[in-house]
């Protein structure tokens, strides 16, 4: 048995995934008055994204079960000890990554979330899953919270916050990525500048789409 499949954590994850499924209609209603073009503009904006995420402050913006399993496997396969996450939401992805740290023998996961109510929910979920000792949640703008105090060597990064900021967050962590470190970007299609960067071998990555909405990149040596 792994931590991920233990009754304690599996029960928490089942509850959270069910909650995320039940919130689909609420999520749609929160942006129903926006045109498709306006939604896309807000998703890609470097300045107006807070207007969008402010509408979604009470709903879980969760990774899929498949992406959660991918995160766990990548962290276990690389024997990760240092992980950085951009965008905590209710903590589903955080739980998968922290479970991998537990099964790797320990480590540290630094995650950032600017919605205070989501920080509270995520922390409660980490406590319920028995993984809070491995995680530091930094509340606020990730461009500030992740600017300092990061590990010298990072094994894995998850980008799942405001899409337009993906290149900026990568700037903050890139010099610390170990050769072979993975960067997982959810909904990366909303950040064309990020995709162009990681898909160019000249920039030191090999990258490929995974599933319908994830970009999986590896830092070259």
What does the model show?
By secondary structure, the protein is of the alpha/beta class. The chain has 10 helices and 7 strands. It has a 7-stranded mixed β-sheet with strand order 3-2-1-4-5-7-6, with helices on both faces. Strand 4, helix 9 and strand 5 form a beta-alpha-beta unit. It is globular, with a radius of gyration of 16 Å. The protein starts with 6 loop residues before the first helix and ends with a strand. 44% of the residues are buried.
Keywords:
alpha/beta; seven-stranded mixed β-sheet; 10 helices; globular
Radius of gyration: 16 Å
The tally of beta strands, per DSSP, is 7
Based on Cα principal axes, name the global outline. Answer: globular
Helix content: 40-55%
What's the layout of helices and strands?
Elements: H1 7-22, H2 24-30, H3 36-44, H4 49-55, H5 65-77, E1 82-86, H6 92-103, E2 108-113, H7 116-129, E3 135-139, H8 142-145, E4 154-159, H9 166-173, E5 177-186, H10 192-198, E6 205-210, E7 214-219
Parallel strand pairs: 1-2, 1-4, 2-3, 4-5
Antiparallel strand pairs: 5-7, 6-7
Helix pairs in contact: 3-4, 5-6
Summarize the structure.
By secondary structure, the chain is α/β, with parallel strands linked by helices. The protein has helices at 7-22, 24-30, 36-44, 49-55, 65-77, 92-103, 116-129, 142-145, 166-173, 192-198, and strands at 82-86, 108-113, 135-139, 154-159, 177-186, 205-210, 214-219.
